[in-house]
Model the fold of this input.
Amino acid sequence: MSEAFWSVSPALRILLPGSMLLLVLIWQAIRNLRAAGRNRLLIVLEGLRLLVAALLVFTLLRPERVRVARRTLEPVVAILRDASGSMATEDVVVDDEVLSRAAWLDAQWEAEFWAPLEERFRVERIAFDATEGALEPGTDINQALEHAGRRYSHLRAVLLLTDGDWNQGESPVQAATELALRDVPVFGVTVGSGSYLPDMELLPVMAPAYGLVDEHIVLPFTIQNRLPRDVRTSITLQDGEGYQEQRDLHIPAMARFQDSILFVPPEEGTYDLTLRLPVEDDEMFADNNEQTFSIDIRRELLNVLVIDTLPRWEYRFLRNALERDPGVEVTCLLLHPGMEPAEGHLYISAFPATREELSDYDVVFLGDVGLGADGLRPEDAAMLRGLVEQQASGLVFLPGWQGRQLGLLDSELRELFPVAFDTNRPEGFGSQTASRLRLTPRGANHLLTMLAPDQYMNEAVWRGLPGFHWHAPVERALPGTEVLAVHANARNRFGRLPLLVAAERGSGKVLFMGTDSAWRWRRGVEDVYHYRFWGQVVRWMAHQRHLAYEDGIRFFYSPSAPTRDESMLLHATVFDASGLPVSEGSVEANIRTPSGATERVPMQAEPGGWGVFTANFVPREGGDFGVEVLAHTAGRRVQTNIEVTSPVLERVGRPARPEVLRELAAITGGQSGAVDELDAVVEAIRMLPDFEPVETRFRLWSHPLWATLLVGLLACYWVGRKWAGMV
Done:
């Protein structure tokens, strides 16, 4: 329904001079016509001049054609309900009862809170969550507002019921601005608390997929304390068979606390473990204080090779510790300078001659050994480097006072050292006074240096360990390494001397121990710390190598904790029936995704003759991936699972964001409130005025065609005057 009429602006400052001008022109036209007689051309010209003058005065009055359209369709109020994962957060308090955000919305839906609006509006209820086509669940408020604006041409208002925690799409301010231009206000009710409720939460535990019998497995955990006070409590690790480990904790107020607890599996099998935190009296939630996970424990024999020149104390006690470890098969090579290598039980007479022989070793300890007649050959050093980089074995550097190990800097092993040496003092530095190792922040809770159940006790243990009287000529740690312990006193221009340094090299690991006195740790406690330390070193270095292993094929991947859309390196080592590495042939990985699809990934042979095949794989979703590696030529096969995590956009437990709804309401002229203000917000919507009529104006006075008409009439008048003067 519409109506139209003309509108002008009759300003006196225009009407009065315009009228006088027209009167003057009329008087002049009459005089001209009387003087010229009945000249038709002159009559036309005078009339044309009067018309142009009248039209100019009319133009100055700004004439406009106004059309008023009144809306007849029923106005719409769109109620947008957040259905995303974060709405599972329990922080809506109603009559001393804590509800989840989704449960509160369900209750309001059942009560039909929008009923008062149906007297004047057509109410449309829409649930929204993530962006259409998004890989990861999330919340896109901007898209929800845009969709409502496009769908309803007679949209009168939008009521947004959400926690405001948007994490996908554009900022909702963009859609709110478009609605404001249409005079559509956005009203919001923040579902949820704008701050954390009092609670203690134990976050998910990142446990390793497998472990070895008698291995000390460090299980890191994180506790979020949202209580306004410090909490003294304990955490308990237990399984269904009676195993139990407990730690006392002191957790600061309103802080995120990280620590770890040790798990030492007594036998092989699958352990279903539960990490439990007691419930405090003033906690709002009692169902987030424990985490359950599983670890597969295997009994595997790790092959270790120890190489040294002289039977120094460090060598003797290391050999004894490894020999008495039931999970280790130790072999020794003692290269006496000027003498034949040692022979007898556990000894071999020469460095492994072939890659096939060397590839059996999971970890190699390299003592005070260099290059030459009384040490290693260059080809031996090259094979050790290949063992670490290609076969994922571990290499431990244990230098001595002879300084022979610095000679390895002239071999291919140079690339494996995690430290730089002071080559002017190859024999190192000795002292009559004992010095001690000091753990770095990284070493305070590292698996290798964890000699006690918790970080604080562990630091006390290390402070009490007997000291050393000699250390290697270390200058600094190289980039990309982990410094676990430093010299407690000595320093240089780079800082304290790094004496215990770990690093990844290729697909394997290396460890540098810059003292020769770990055997002294037995003083007063016998084998407690000495055996435990070297046992942890061996198992830490061999862990990845035994991730998935069947007869004749070994498979692992990196990174060890992959995430969605992150490139993974798949690594398989294949041996034939005679134990020789397979360097050619067809090897492939068949990967079953969590959604059920199967992807075939061909693996390419790496140069070097180590039997290594690699491929890159990018998981496009999170979850449990089943992997089957097939070596067709060698007839080998191994299966394993890879757990891929996804970035979590929708986090349960975070506070709501009322500031988002306040901003949207301010932009559009709406109103926002909390859950207890829902009725007030609904009433504000109900009281909205009716739609204003839609008015459109055709501005004749500024239209180009109108200007063209005036110019054309003036041109005709001018041409006519010239013509009249020629007659």
